[in-house]
Structure formats: structure tokens, C-alpha cells
């Protein structure tokens, strides 16, 4: 019997001809990525205690994105430590305040199909969009990787999410994932590998594929993964990387999966997830008059260039409703520059958006845009757990950038298709 | 985790890492962060939990972020063991890395808050001393039990590195 893509990557990293689900194997790590929150400030004391250095500084990428820019003495100290530690350990791949790690990593050409990658953040499955096996670990696990260059893994089964058809106008990868969370639940991924397949996936741009793999975390999967194709190779080449042999990193036709779930992209409507779980998703039409204090477009999940384009398509020539504040935090400084060059930023700011720094920001309750008690926000981020974006009694609804922008204009939940050219 | 057992603190399904280690306090020292551990679902937990007490939970305990302060806060408060119907994968790894025993134990949700519970990690058995019920847990992979015996990944690596020298 053949192997899935995930199994092939793990077998290669474990130095084996083949692996089977359930086996526990030790893998050599091709790349380790960490950020300012779970990275240097947490691994430094561990490495010092062990009297050990970094196994291969070339294989480490550090991105400051959680506490950027510094807003108080504590965040300034964390960033200072991050800079000093990366310099002391010769980490050349340090991206300081240039965007969110999951977006910066592929943007700078670090990912290549077939790689076995660990990231010190739960949304690390994002890298699976590039045909990598990439998963999130905590800081002590990361310290172990930094010292030994290896980590253990229980070979996951593969769960296939097969998407037929094509997404309609005003519907995006975010809607696909909210609908998936609603159907499978927050532990439907059961720490296995979720692989996205089907015509709808093949037609998606890389940024949308990143959103799918990113939110595999919300299914409780160990990772999300998409087999590389020409779209993948073109993105990597444009980012200055090398895609390598994409034909090698495909699953075998006779590989066994735990299960296959079928979805229909043609009939998918824009989705909104009510507080306090991404799995509380329902089509936008299921909601009545839900009004908002804040609309937030940000994070690795919802503020890539395509996400900003979605918001701009709705906001063009319109104004944010009175009483609503629209905050936009582009996922990287490169995206900000591209959005400035193509006129997207002008569209957003003309509509009344306030631009925020590129970083994790309010998504993780850390940066600008956190909520007061009793406030309600609609957000393009990935999680709406109670208290995550600020006060315990605040409510966060999750939606696509299209739908967040539509809510900003309407002041309440609205179907974004009514705001797009030719709509209404 | 001896014969006297500890008090059971019982939680439901899908307890997330923002609840265990709220983002608002992530940049604060662990003693301050730990005071807010689980406060969104049980405001009395951090002040009331005693060393040796046991956290009992439903499905998908520790879902969400990879922040290991979610485990560290429990350890800081003296919790040595969490028994749950199931765990989120990253939390499960983090638990053993920091020497916290995480036992998957179907049916354990029947334990009542305040019951006396004894956990035997080596045997993989959870006993409700208040009711006499016992549960067999899913076996823990041998390399993770080794790690817990050593007190976590760092002391475990210390041993490995010392052996190499």
C-alpha cells in the first residue's frame, strides 16, 4: 500500500523507506521557526541550563510579531531580548517587525515542498499550503529541537477534506474553514493530518490555501497540507525560493486515509461564527440584526494581500457605518507596501479604516484593538474564544474579510455579496 | 499523587489555552499569570487549588495556542496530573515536556468536583476515592513516561547530554 504525502515527508525526515500511522519516530528537522512570544525569551533559559547552543543557525528563522511594536517596558524588553539572542546565536534569518511569522516564512522563500518544519506557534500548519509537513510546538519542545535538530512524532493518519466545484463571488477560504469547523467540530482533526483536495483547492491562490491550512489548527489537527502544484511552484519562485521536484511530493493513489469528507464549494454561502467558538458557524443569512462596535481585519488568517483585496472590493466608494470602528492590520510590511502600490490602502482608508502595525495584535489580545467589557467585534481572525481579544464579556464573531467589511459598512451582520459589483 | 489523592477540579469540553493562560497576562511573570489560570470558567480555582490536586476535564483539553504557559500555570499551582476524555495535541506534548502527567481517560467526566482522586501514572489508573470508581487510562508512550519520571524534557535532555559527555 502507498503512502500519503504527510507519511512520505515524515519517512524522509526519519530516514526511513516508509512509515505507518501510529508509529512513533524521530525526525530530523529541516527548519525551525519561532516568534518573540514563544521563542528566544522562553528557550534562552533552557539552552543556558543545558549549556547548549543552536544545532544549525541556518535552519532557524525568528520573527518578531506578537509584541510589536513595543507599547510598554515589558514588550520592549521582550523584543530587546529577541534581538540580542538572535544576534548572539548567529541567526541570520531574523525578521524584526516585518509581519506575522506564518506569512513572512513563505513570503521570504523559506518553504519548499517535502520539508519537515516545526514552528513555535499553533498556526504553524499554515506552511502545509506549500507541501511541507509543518506543525506547532511549545517552547520546551522547540528548545529540544534547537539543541538536537530532531523531534519525535507519532505518525498521523490523513483525513481528506475533498472540495468539489468552485467558490462563488464573495466567498473565500475563510468561509470554507468556518463551515468545516461547524461540521467536524473543534477536535474533528483529532491531531491527525488534514489534507485538502479537489477542484476547488486547485483553483485557489496560495494565500487562500494558507488560510485553509492555517485553520487546520481550529480542527485540532496536527497539520493541514496541500499537495504542491504549478501554483505552489510559481509562488515559491516569485518569493526567491526553489520549489524543487514537486512531482516527488504527492500522495500515492492507493494510500489509506482515515476518512474522506466531501464538501461542495459551488453552494457555499458566506459564513459567520458566533461567540465563542469557530465551530459556531452558520451561513450569514442565519443571523438577525447583530450590531458591532468594532470590525477587525488582521492576523495570519485574515490580512494577507488577497484578504485586503476582498475588504477593498466591498469598501470601495463606501463609508464605515457611524458607531463602528474598522481596524486593519496587514499581515506583513511587504503586504502593506503592495497594498499601497496597487491602491488598496487608499480604498480602505478612504472608507474610514484605521491602519495598525503588522503583527498578531488584537487577535491574540496583545496589541492595539483589544475590546472593552460588553463590546462586540466581527473579525477576520481565526479564534473567538472567550476573553481572547480583550475583556471576558466581549464577543467576537468570525468571518471572511468580505463579510467583516460588509458588517463595517452596514453596522451589523450583512451578506457581502450585496456590496460587490453587480450584486444587490 | 499518593494514597490520599487530591481534590478533583472538574471542567467541561474544549477548555482553551486562552482560558488556561490569558493573553492579557502573557508577558507577566508566571506567578501573576497563574493567578488568572482558568478564572474565566472557575474564578476560585487559582486561589483554591492545592499541590497534588487533580484537574479533570472533558474532550479536547488545552485546545488553541501552543503557549506552554498553559501547562506551566498548572504546574506553578501545584497540579501534577490532568485526566481528560481527550487532549489537544500541542497541549499534550507540552504537558509531558514540563513534567505534567496528562492521562487520556474515557468516562472520567463522571468524577464530581471536590471528590478525592488518586492518579497512578505508572499503572495508568485513576481512582475516585470518594466513590470507589476506577478508570483505566490509555497507555502513555514509553518515551513520554520516561520524560515525566525525569521531571520533563529539560532534565531529560540534561541526563542525555551528561551521558554523552
Could you name the ranges of chain B where pLDDT drops below 50 across 5 or more consecutive residues? none
The sequence of SSEs of chain B as H and E is: EHHHEHEHEEEEHH
Name the quaternary structure: heterodimer
User: Quick one: how many beta strands of chain A?
Assistant: 18
Please estimate the helix content of chain A: 25-40%
Structural class of chain A: alpha/beta
Radius of gyration of chain A: 21 Å
User: Which two chains form the greatest contact, residue counts included?
Assistant: A-B, 46 and 37 residues
Q: What amount of the residues of chain B lies in strands? A: 15-25%
CATH class of the largest domain in chain A: Alpha Beta
> For the record, what is the CATH homologous superfamily label of the largest domain in chain A?
Aconitase, domain 3
Mean pLDDT of chain A: 97
> Structural class, judged by helices and strands of chain B?
alpha/beta
Overall shape of chain A: it is globular
Molecular structure report:
The complex is a heterodimer of chains A (424) and B (165). Chain A has 424 residues and is an alpha/beta fold. Chain A folds into two domains: 5-264, 2-Layer Sandwich (Aconitase, domain 3), CATH 3.30.499; 271-419, Aconitase, domain 3. Chain A contains 14 helices and 18 strands. Chain A has helices at 5-14, 40-50, 73-88, 101-107, 139-148, 173-184, 199-202, 206-214, 230-238, 299-302, 305-315, 333-341, 344-350, 401-410; strands at residues 24-28, 31-35, 60-64, 93-96, 116-119, 133-136, 150-154, 158-164, 193-197, 223-225, 259-264, 271-273, 281-283, 294-297, 325-328, 354-355, 376-379, 395-399. In chain A, the strands form four sheets. A seven-stranded mixed beta sheet of chain A has the order 13-12-18-17-14-15-16, sandwiched between helices. In chain A, strand 3, helix 3 (73-88) and strand 4 form a beta-alpha-beta unit. In chain A, helix 11 (305-315) packs parallel to helix 14 (401-410). Chain A starts with a helix and ends in a 14-residue tail after the last helix. By secondary structure, chain B is an alpha/beta fold. Chain B has a single domain (6-164), classed as Aconitase, domain 4, CATH 3.20.19. Chain B has seven helices and seven strands, in the order E-H-H-H-E-H-E-H-E-E-E-E-H-H. Chain B has helices at 17-20, 30-34, 45-48, 69-76, 89-97, 142-150, 153-164, and strands at 6-10, 54-57, 81-84, 101-104, 116-120, 125-128, 134-136. The longest helix of chain B is centred in the last third of the chain and has 12 residues, at 153-164. Chain B is globular and about 50 Å long. The interface between A and B is large, with 46 and 37 residues.
Amino acid at each position: 500500500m502507498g503512502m500519503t504525502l504527510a507519511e512520505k515527508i515524515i519517512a524522509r525526515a526519519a530516514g526511513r523507506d516508509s512509515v505507518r500511522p501510529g508509529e512513533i519516530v524521530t525526525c530530523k528537522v529541516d527548519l525551525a521557526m519561532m516568534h518573540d512570544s514563544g521563542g528566544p525569551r522562553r528557550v534562552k533559559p533552557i539552552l543556558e541550563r543545558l549549556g547548549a547552543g543552536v544545532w544549525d543557525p541556518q535552519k532557524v528563522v525568528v520573527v518578531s510579531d506578537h509584541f510589536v511594536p513595543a507599547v510598554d517596558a515589558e514588550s520592549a524588553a521582550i523584543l530587546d531580548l529577541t534581538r540580542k539572542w538572535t544576534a548572539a546565536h548567529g541567526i541570520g534569518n531574523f525578521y524584526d517587525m516585518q509581519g506575522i511569522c506564518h506569512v513572512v516564512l513563505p513570503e521570504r522563500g523559506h518553504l519548499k515542498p517535502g520539508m519537515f518544519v516545526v514552528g513555535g506557534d499553533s498556526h504553524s500548519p499554515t506552511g502545509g499550503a506549500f507541501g511541507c509537513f509543518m506543525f506547532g510546538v511549545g517552547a520546551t519542545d522547540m528548545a529540544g529541537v534547537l539543541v538536537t535538530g530532531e523531534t519525535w512524532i507519532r505518525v498521523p493518519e490523513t483525513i481528506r477534506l475533498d472540495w468539489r466545484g468552485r467558490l462563488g463571488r464573495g466567498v473565500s477560504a475563510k468561509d470554507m474553514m468556518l463551515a468545516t469547523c461547524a461540521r467536524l467540530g473543534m477536535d474533528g482533526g483529532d491531531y491527525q493530518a488534514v489534507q485538502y483536495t479537489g477542484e476547488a483547492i486547485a483553483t485557489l491562490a496560495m494565500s487562500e490555501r494558507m488560510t485553509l491550512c492555517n485553520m487546520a489548527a481550529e480542527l485540532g489537527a496536527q497539520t493541514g497540507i496541500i499537495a504542491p502544484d504549478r501554483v505552489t511552484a510559481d509562488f515559491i519562485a516569485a518569493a526567491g525560493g526553489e520549489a524543487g521536484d514537486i512531482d516527488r511530493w504527492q500522495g500515492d493513489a492507493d494510500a489509506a486515509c482515515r476518512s474522506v469528507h466531501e464538501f461542495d464549494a459551488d453552494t457555499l454561502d458566506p459564513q459567520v461564527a458566533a461567540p465563542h467558538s469557530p465551530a459556531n458557524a452558520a451561513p450569514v443569512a442565519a443571523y438577525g440584526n447583530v450590531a458591532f462596535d468594532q470590525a477587525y481585519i488582521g492576523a495570519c488568517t485574515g490580512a494577507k494581500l488577497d484578504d485586503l483585496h476582498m475588504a477593498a472590493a466591498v469598501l470601495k466608494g463606501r463609508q464605515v457605518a457611524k458607531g463602528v470602528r474598522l481596524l486593519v492590520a496587514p499581515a506583513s510590511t511587504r503586504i502593506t507596501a503592495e497594498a499601497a502600490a496597487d491602491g488598496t490602502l487608499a480604498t480602505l482608508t478612504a472608507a474610514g479604516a484605521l491602519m495598525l502595525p503588522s503583527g498578531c495584535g488584537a487577535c491574540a489580545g496583545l496589541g492595539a484593538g483589544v475590546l472593552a467589557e460588553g463590546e462586540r467585534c466581527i473579525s477576520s481572525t481565526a479564534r473567538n474564544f472567550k476573553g481572547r481579544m480583550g475583556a471576558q464579556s466581549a464577543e467576537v464573531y468570525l468571518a471572511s474579510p468580505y463579510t467583516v467589511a460588509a458588517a463595517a459598512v452596514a453596522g451589523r451582520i450583512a451578506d457581502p455579496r450585496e456590496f460587490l459589483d453587480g450584486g444587490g | 499523587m499518593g494514597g490520599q489523592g487530591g481534590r478533583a477540579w472538574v471542567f467541561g469540553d474544549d477548555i482553551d489555552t486562552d482560558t488556561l493562560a490569558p493573553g492579557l497576562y502573557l508577558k507577566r511573570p508566571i506567578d501573576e499569570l497563574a493567578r488568572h489560570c482558568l478564572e474565566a470558567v472557575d474564578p476560585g480555582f487559582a486561589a483554591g487549588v492545592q499541590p497534588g490536586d487533580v484537574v479533570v476535564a472533558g474532550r479536547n483539553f488545552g485546545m488553541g495556542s501552543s503557549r506552554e504557559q498553559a501547562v506551566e500555570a498548572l504546574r506553578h499551582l501545584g497540579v501534577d496530573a490532568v485526566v481528560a476524555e481527550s487532549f489537544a495535541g500541542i497541549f499534550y506534548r507540552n504537558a509531558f515536556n514540563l513534567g505534567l502527567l496528562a492521562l487520556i481517560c474515557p468516562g472520567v467526566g463522571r468524577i464530581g468536583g471536590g471528590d478525592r482522586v488518586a492518579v497512578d501514572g505508572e499503572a495508568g489508573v485513576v481512582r475516585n476515592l470518594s466513590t470507589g470508581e476506577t478508570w483505566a487510562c490509555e497507555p502513555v508512550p514509553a518515551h513520554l513516561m520516561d520524560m515525566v519520571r525525569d521531571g520533563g524534557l529539560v532534565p531529560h535532555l540534561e541526563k542525555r547530554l551528561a551521558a554523552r559527555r
